[in-house]
Write a structure and sequence with these properties.
alpha+beta; four-stranded antiparallel sheet; 37% strand
């Protein structure tokens, strides 16, 4: 299916960046990386909007994937006083995605 590819492309648009922004301001968002791994969309994003989570870094990872009939989103944020490298953040997010997908359905 082309749906995951189209979903990746959405986040390169102004509307997609606004959707990623904590303030709905596309000009404050930079999509640093976006890629598919199977049918999972991974994004590395920097959002310069005012942080609602005290001490969090502006950069974060996000994954979008289907579980049954639901679209699931997982975001991984690190903190200024305990930053994660790019690779450590991606690895942690991939582990969360795997664990989520392996849960028995309700």
């Amino acid at each position: 299916s082309d749906a995951p590819d189209a979903f990746v492309g959405l986040f390169e648009t102004e509307a997609g960046k606004a959707a990623l922004s904590r303030s709905n301001d596309a000009t404050l968002v930079d999509v640093e990386e976006s890629f598919l791994q199977g049918d999972i969309v991974y994004l590395r994003v920097t959002d310069q909007s005012p942080n609602r989570l005290p001490g969090a870094e502006p950069a974060f990872w996000r994954a979008y994937f289907d579980v049954g009939d639901s679209l699931v989103t997982i975001s991984l944020h690190s903190f200024v006083d305990a930053p994660l490298s790019r690779d450590a953040g991606l690895s942690a997010l991939q582990n969360f995605v795997t664990e989520t997908r392996n849960q028995p359905s309700a």
